[in-house]
Amino acid sequence: xxxxxxxxxxxxxxxxxxxxxxxxxxxxxxxxxxxxxxxxxxxxxxxxxxxxxxxxxxxxxxxxxxxxxxxxxxxxxxxxxxxxxxxxxxxxxxxxxxxxxxxxxxxxxxxxxxxxxxxx
Amino acid sequence: xxxxxxxxxxxxxxxxxxxxxxxxxxxxxxxxxxxxxxxxxxxxxxxxxxxxxxxxxxxxxxxxxxxxxxxxxxxxxxxxxxxxxxxxxxxxxxxxxxxxxxxxxxxxxxxxxxxxxxxxxxxxxxxxxxxxxxxxxxxxxxxxxxxxxxxxxxxxxxxxxxxxxxxx
Lengths: 120, 168
Hints:
The structure holds two protein chains of two kinds. By secondary structure, chain A is of the alpha+beta class. Chain A has helices at about 5-15, 45-65, 100-120; strands at about 25, 35, 70-75, 80-85, 90-95. Chain A has a single domain (about 5-120), classed as Dynein light chain 2a, cytoplasmic (Beta-Lactamase), CATH 3.30.450. In chain A, helix 1 runs antiparallel to helix 3. Chain A starts with a helix and ends with a helix. Chain B is of the alpha/beta class. Chain B has one domain: P-loop containing nucleotide triphosphate hydrolases (Rossmann fold), CATH 3.40.50.300. Chain B contains six helices and eight strands, in the order E-H-E-E-E-E-H-E-H-E-H-E-H-H. Chain B has helices spanning about 15-25, 70-80, 95-110, 130-135, 150-155, 155-165, and strands spanning about 5-10, 30-35, 45, 50-55, 60-65, 85-90, 115-120, 145. In chain B, a hairpin with a 2-residue loop joins strand 4 (about 50-55) and strand 5 (about 60-65). Chain B starts with a strand and ends with a helix. The chains are: A alpha+beta, B alpha/beta. The interface of A and B includes residues 29, 31, 48 and 59 of A.
């Protein structure tokens, strides 16, 4: 299996664990889409924005003495955007509806970010 | 003193972050991430740079944008409320001029404020002169300023020109 296929398989597994997820993307640290799963046709946009949110989040965490950045959560009244660093190699970004079990989404997403780090 | 908001924009690798690091009198906020494309350097700005300085009796807040067009949402966000635009272009990379023109159109059409074109990397071989860059961009030649963003004396030159145009 190519690296791309392995990454796609990991995203499919994540989608299987959390079927309510709408968009799932892996972005490079500088905002290029590496692999994506979703129907919105917004993967390229989301990859750039995930990198921006993550880059800015890191700076906010440093400036305000929060320690190391753990996650980015953007909450709308209909859904969440959540992003985690995949080590130093990329960013996992996903959207999930407002009614989701956010605790579970966080646990799974962090677990899959670790899996992705081994493959990416 | 009312601070003046300026933005520094332009294609990747033009020297935007370098300029802000050279000029800022306060700690610079930068958002570098590892580059995954061959852009001639290890890291690239993904959100913004921010620095401040006092120049000619004004307090300037300078916001630098990312260079790649996938970050055009940041151009829009950072251009909000800007009173002047400094577009940086590399003299030795004429192939980036169409991207520079695209950024200029995008930002100037939204802000309707004065702009200056800063031309960097003039110490390299085979460069376009500032007036040639201005001609390509359809900008009056007196708005194109050649300078070295690594040197403080040099780095204020395009800002001084921009303040003149802003009538500040």
